[in-house]
Amino acid sequence: MSKNRIGLLVIATNKYTRFIQPLIESADNYFLKDQDVTYFIFTDKELNIKSHRNIEYIKVEHEPWPWMTLGRYNIFFDNKKYLENMNYLYYCDADMLFFSDVGEEIICD
Of 38, 65, 89, 92, which residue is the least packed, with the fewest Cβ within 10 Å? Predict the structure, then answer.
């Protein structure tokens, strides 16, 4: 299978920014290891996340719960110019971790 351009979208504002480094480390180890993955981090803070993959930081304003969850598709749509060159987009919560391989079975070619 050829490499796809994969976007992993994460919203991390306010106190949720503390979860980003562990999430990215787990994704580096387990998420589509043989694909061209870019992390799109929608955040209200300046972050310096370490990864061997490309990271795009997209500035968003924090809104109180539950707007950040309920409005996530509006956030993605409003920033579609950053996402339009991806073959696939996946979303995950900022406070999750990958513990096992997520492979090409999630790609429908």
Answer: 65
